[in-house]
Each structure stands twice: as structure tokens, then as C-alpha cells.
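Pinned message: reference record for SpoIIE family protein phosphatase
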Amino acid sequence: MVRQPGRSDTRPSRSGTPRAPLAQREPSGPGRIRSGRLWSALSGRSVAGQVFVLQVAIVLLLIVSAVLALVLQVRHDSTTEARNRSLAVAQTFADAPGTAAALRLPDPTKVLQPRAEAARKATGVDFIVVMNTDGIRFTHPKPDRIGKKFVGTIGPALAGGTVTEEVHGTIGELVQAVVPVRDANGKVVGLVSAGITTAHVGGRADQQLPLLLTAAAAALALATAGTALVSRRLLRQTHGLGPDEMTRMYEHHDAVLHSVREGVLIVGGDGRLMLANDEAQRLLDLPQDAERRLVLDLGLDAETAALIASGRVATDEVHLVKDRLLAVNQRPIEVRGGPPGSVTTLRDSTELRALSGRAEVARERLNMLYDAGVGIGTSLDVTRTAEELTELAVPRFADYATLDLYDAVLKGEEPKPGDALRRVAFAGIRKDAPLYPVGERFQFVPSSPQGRSLESGESVVEPRLRDSPGWRSQDVELTGRILEFGIHSLITVPLRAGNLVLGLANFCRSEKLAPFDTEELALAEELVARAAVSIDNARRYTREHSMAVTLQRSLLPRNLPAQSALDIAYRYLPAQSGVGGDWFDVLPLSGARVALVVGDVVGHGLHAAATMGRLRTAVHNFTALDLQPDELMGLLDELVGRIDQDETPVDDADNTVTITGATCLYAIYDPVSRRCTVARAGHPPPALVGPDGSVEFPDVPAGPPLGVGGLPFETADLELPEGSSLVLYTDGLVEDRQRDIDEGLELLAGALESAAGSSPDDTCAAVLERLPARPGDDVALIVARTRALGADRIAEWQVPADPAAVSEVRSRVTRQLADWGLDELSFTTELILSELVTNAIRHGRPPIGVRLLRDRSLICEVSDASTTSPHLRYAASTDEGGRGLFLVAQMSERWGTRYTPAGKVIWAEQPLP
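Predicted structure (C-alpha cells):
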């Protein structure tokens, strides 16, 4: 507890009886007091004792440091002096007259030893050694060492330099110098070394140390006396309390006064404020210098100030202080033996209202999170998911909300840092906010809150946009208009999906005056986190859907082949829910015929698209064999059955079988006979539009879907007048969840009737106008208007089974080609027909027929009643025949064989000149 000035230390004891003040419990008598307090100070248990010990220790440390510094300085000076003296003596002796000459004598020691000793004694060094260049001594203070090897470094001296080093010799620590002796020519003829122990050049420390110790003792005595006086005064102030007791006392003081949720005021008897804790300063909005001022001068309302200054007893009196309702309790403190004054406690009753308001806010936030869980991500559409987030946030959380995504996210790809963002969604209480519009692309500068958020991946709160220079640097003019509009606070949150940042969500306030705080930031992050998961799922779906669409479109025909039998237009629409397996094809056949095929693989996605590609490739291969529609359907049925078997899991525990399933319709149109042969496998029937605009659905036998197996397929022969239209389609055109197939066929018939007389392309457009913008299933549509090959472009005749008839055939061919203006092809055509007719006569059976067709190319056909198929081979040099088909293959652009109910036809095509 804190003792106020003038207050006694009367405290109740544990037994309940009042304790005497500390001053009364101390022993009487000045000597007793001085000795007790001094001992307490010196003991080190109290704060005063610790201060005393610390100061004495500091003085001792300074004294020891000074002595150590002196010793080190003296040692350094001694070493420096020894170096200088030894080097000077050695250099002087080496340069002395006669030293170099003495080294050339037979006995240099006899001359140099007396000189060296005289010089040693005169200079005070410990030794002067003269040696030759090999380091053999000529002089030494101890004669027994003359002639022995010098101990030390002589290399630099031999090179003309000097050596000064510290060594440990037999006489102790010493410094020696080695210098060269040069002759008149400057050649090194010997060496001189002089050395001296550092002890001989020292001695100043011994002279200064007694003076230093005397000064240190005096300083220690003065410091001890001063510290004792300070400790005695500190002892009176702390009442002998130790550090732990004082720390605990002040911790309790802080806990009571500054941690409680009640305001505490202590007012003196003169009406001055002695103490106010943090809560009291907050509740009363006191000035910083409130303490020691009169309560009546603190700016409080008159009633509250009068109550606090009066010191009277008050219990839960409610006073309105500014916008707060305060419950005031007040008690005097002098009744317990303290100084005059009172203690006032303040409790804010408005906090109860604030708590209830916060509970309501928390409940609203929970409702928002619940609504976000069920309302965000209802579709696998990136844009719609973004709109759901902004619509949820406005106006419940923010006045304006925007969502910006990288363009790559909209395409289903992973975003790359540094790319531009595109505004995808916007919601606000007003539509005229000066923010980037939906669809605009932009980049945020690094200093803006959005730029910092994208860089760090963390959310950023700007409570006051007016004070954010980084935000204003984005666009000075635009941000100025935003501030004028009233938008004042911003939260920007990155949309994170794992390690990917997909974009940014921005929440702004204008009508709500309170800025965003950290609790609202947590709510915004939770909302955005839920939206980010849905957006990432939509992005992945978009990517997979795009891949499937790309795969499917790559498998569909890009251009229609050149042919003259049909005028064709087509349309293909992918499904809204996913890529399906609808496909179609237009395949030219021999004899100017054209095959139309349309099919639908069960299911959606990559599997359906891949299966469709396999079926389309198979149809291409089977068409090359010139098979009838029912035969081709049988082969496709076997192929789909094998696909089902191959894709059935081997380790399927519940024995489930993956059924591919497909439907198909195959039609062959012959412009010569104007007949169309159609077969279908579980597919909707074709529509036939007559030249007069009438629409009918011919009765084509409906075979089972491909892959079922076990049942044959049947064909229907249709005679199509020239100018009629054959319409092939998939079930997505006539059937969906809102209508059955009969209703769809009626709608299709109505659309075809309304488009009667239009071109095939206009007919396709008219049919698709009646479909929704994005159908639930794939739609493939082909409109083929028939053409007929005129009689003036056909020549045919029967040939007797007589080799002599071949010449007649050549003559007729020559005349016919001349009538058509194709004389250039006479020779090759005669050769081709000669070989084909000859083979038919020799190996076939009558009747034998020849037909010439002038279409986009010249087509030669030879038919007979045999089903034996010829084959191309290389004839040996000794063979008399076997070269006919080889010549036919060389002369024609294409050739082949097709079978008919009456036999076979061998055909060959030549390009027109």
C-alpha cells in the first residue's frame, strides 16, 4: 500500500488488534537507532543495505581498475623502452669504427670481446653479442658461450634489415635486437645483437603504486561514509523493507489501482486530488495534471465535483458525467487513523448496456457467418460466387464491397504475381460510388493497402483513409473523389487458397461513422476465407471444363470436306453443366456419295470427350471400307462393348461395371440415285424437310444403343428429292428436364417449317434460337440440303463377258470424254477401264457394268456379280499378268472396292484438269 504524507502506519494485526506505528515499535535511544539501522543497511537484506553494498563494490572496482591500468601502462612503457634501448645499442656498436674490420681478423673475439663488455656496462644493457653471418658468437658476457650458436631470429638482419623481438631467456623476460654489420661496400659481414630484460627498465610502477593505494584508501573511506549516510536516509524512507517486500507492495498497489474496472480517487482534506487510477481518469476524462489540483477546478459537473470535494459518505449514488452513468461510493479515511481525506470509487453502469450491445453484434456476426456458409458457393461460377460475397457483406457489414480477381483465375488458371486485377463484383448502398467499375483491369501500387496485402498475403486495415498517403498514391484524383463521396475506412483481405493469392476483397464504410476495428477484421477474414474456397473450387472446375471443351473441340471436325452431293451447315453447343460426348462428321465416299454421322456418348467430362474421339476415329476407319450403315453400326457396337470391358476396374469390390454407352445415327446419300440409307442405334430419328417446306420424321428402325450387343441393326432407304433437307441432331436439341422428347420434336418441326426455303446456315440459326442460351446438354445439329448429279454427268452401259468387248468400252469412253471436254484424260481412262473390265471378265461374274461420273473428279466404276475382292500385288519379271491393278493405282488419284447386294464395284478417281 502507499502511505500518504502525514499518515501513521497503524495496521491491524492478524489477531484483529491494532498495531502500533513503525516509529513506536522501534527501540528508543539514538545509539540504539543508529546501530540498528546501520547494521540493517550493512546487512544487505534491505534496499538500503543493497544500495550500500553496491556503491562500495563500485568504488572497489574503480580502484582495482586504476591499479590494473597503471601496471599495464608501466609494463607497456617498459617494453617500449627496452626495444628502443636494445636497438640503439646494437646499431651503435655495429656502426662503430673497427667493428667490421675486426670481423675479418683471424680471432675477432680478442678484439671485440673487451669492446662489447665495455659498451654493455656503459649502456646498461644485459648483453652485446657479435656474431658472424652463420650466427656463431664472437662475444658474450659469459665467455663459455662464445663460439656457440646465437639463439634468436637473424634472417631479416642478414637481408639488411633489423630484428626486434621479445624472448624468454635464462635471465628472464627480455627484448633483444639484431642488426647487420656492413663493410665499406655495404655487404653484411656480421651481426650484432643487444638485449635487456624488461625488469631493468621498469620500476615506475613501484614508485607510483604506494601513492595510488593511499589515494584509493582515502576515496574508499569517503565513499563508504557517504554511502552510509545515503543508506541511513534510505532506511528511514523504506522503513527497513527488503526489495521483495517493496516490489510486492507496489505490485499490489498497481493491481488494485490500475487493473480494477472501477475508478478510485483519493482526495486530501483540503479538497485536492491526491491520486486517481487509470479507470477514474478515463471515466471522468481528467486532465494529465489533475493530481495536486482542487477537485472543483478539474472541469467536472458541479454536482459530481461537490460530492467528491465534500468527502461525505455516499453509497451507489448515480451521477450523469458527460455520456456515462456513474455509480459513486465514497468513504472518509481519517476514521482508520489515516490523514484527513476520502476515498471515492466510480463504477460505469453504462458498461452493462455496452455488453448487451456487443452480444447483439456477436449474434449478428454469427448469423452472417451462417449465411455465408449456405449462401456463398452455390454454383461453380467464379463471378457468381464473387457476387454472393459482396451481396452478403452489404449493408450488414460494410457500405460498399468489391472483389478483384486475377484474369487467370477467371480462365481457370493459377494466377501469377504482378498480373493485373479485374473487378469482378461490386455491391453498395449506392450505385454512384466513384470506385473502379466491374470489368475494369488495374494494378495497385505497392504502397497502397491493396498492394501491401498482395505482397504480404496478410489483411490490411485502414481506419482512416484520409490519413493514408499510400492509399492516396494509387490515383490522386480518384481517391480524392472517393474521400469527397464520404468513404472513410477500408479493410482489404487477400483471397488465399493454400499458397495461392487469387485476388482481393475490399470493404468500405461511408454512412457508418465508426471505423473498422480488429474484431471486424477477423469477421472479414472469415467471410473471405469461405468465399476463397468456393472461388478456388469454381476456378478448378472452370479449368477442367475448359480442358474438356478444348479436347472435345479438337476432336470435332474443324472444316467440312469438299463434296458436291450436299449443301451442309452445322452447329455445336457445349453443355452448361459440363462437356458431353456429342459429335458429328461428314465423310465423302466413293461414287460421289457422302456419309453423315452424328452420335452422343453417355455422360459428361473428359471421359465422355475421350470416348467420343475414339468412336469418331473408328467411324473414319470403318468408312474407308465402304461399309453399309447397318454393318458399320455392328462394328461400332462391338468396339463400345470392348471399351466397357477395358475400363471396368479389376479390383472392383462391389462388382460395379462402368458402362460407356453411346447412341449413333449413320446415313449415306447417293446423289446419282438420290437415295439415302440410314441406320440408327438408340438415336433420335432424322428430320426430313421437303422442297415444299413440309417436315416429317421418317420411320427409321431404332436399334439398341451401342455397347448393348446381341441385336442386329436395320437400315431404311429414303428417296430424297433434290432440294430437300436432311436434319441430324443429338437429344440435347429436343429433350431436357423441362420437356419430353415428343414436345421437343414438335418444337423442332415448327422451327424447320418456319425456316423453310432458307439456306442450311439460316436453318441452323433458326432452330437454335428456340433453345436456352446455355442448354443443359450438348447439342450437335447438321442441316444437309440435297443435290442431284444430273444425267448429263453420268454415263453407264453393260459389257458382255467377252474379252473382245474391251475395245468397244474404250471407244465409248473416248467419245464420252470428248463430249465432256475431257480429252486429256482419254488415255489414262481407257487404260484404267481396260484393266478393270478385263479383270471383271476374267475373274468376276456377269452382269458387268461400266459407269462414268463427272463430279469434282472423274470417277470410273466397273461392277460385276462376284464378291471376290481384287488386291494389289507386284508381278515378277516372268509373270505375264498381275500388273493391272498396279497400273490402275498409279494412274488414278484414289481407287478401291465397295460391295453391293448384287456384287461389288471397283472404282477409281482421277482429278479433273
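Pinned by admin. Summary line: Confidence is low (pLDDT under 50) at residues 1-42, 652-657, 875-881.
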